[in-house]
Amino acid sequence: MSPDEQEHIEQFSLIQIYEHAIECYPDECCGLVYGNLVRECKNIQNELHAKDSVKYPRDASCGYTFLFDDLVFLNRNLVGDNPVRIIYHSHPDVGAYFSEEDHGRAVYNDTLIYPVDYLVIAVDKGKVSCARLFKFHNKEFIEIKKFAGYEEMIDKVS
Ligand SMILES: [Zn+2]
Q1: Helices (H), 9-130
Q2: Domains delineated in the chain
Q3: How far is the CA of 62 from the centre of ligand 1 (A)?
Q4: Ligand 1: distance of its center to the CA of 89 in Å?
């Protein structure tokens, strides 16, 4: 990602992503950044959990699964003019770390499934405190950027 692109996420898309995360709290939100746009996706984890809590022990407060339509969108938009470059999701009340679950979902056989970076948004008591961007490097995820919380971001753009 170029510095310009990062700057763009920082100032504009990030606010939309933060608002999506706040709206979904206390559940996790999930979505995609493609080109300069954000696709707010639907987290169907609660529906899966309600249907089969053995197979899907996590509800949406601590897990996310994209709606099939969103997955199709992701797969169709990995190449082209506006490729998906970030998958984001929120962590309600546990901090913006990259969990083992997140790693397992993003990687297959030590290979990144989607050629994207991962943004994790920390929502604490309904407020976004920060977000961290992770990149897959040498078989693990490293933090490449930390973003300020919602209120600080709003101050920056206003
Ligand atoms: Zn996570």
Answers
A1: 14-24, 45-51, 68-76, 100-106
A2: 3-157 (3.40.140.10)
A3: 7
A4: 6
Residue-wise pLDDT tens digits, 114-129? 999 999 999 999 999 9
> Which residue's structure tokens are 């995609």?
32
Place of tokens 């913006």: 96
Q: Which residues surround ligand 1, an ion (CB under 5 A)?
A: 99, 102
Q: Give Cα 41 to chain centroid, integer Å.
A: 10
Give residue 127's Cα distance to chain centre.
16
The per-residue pLDDT for range 50-87, each reduced to its tens digit, is 999 999 999 999 999 999 999 999 999 998 888 999 99
Q: 118 alpha carbon to ligand 1 midpoint, in Å?
A: 10
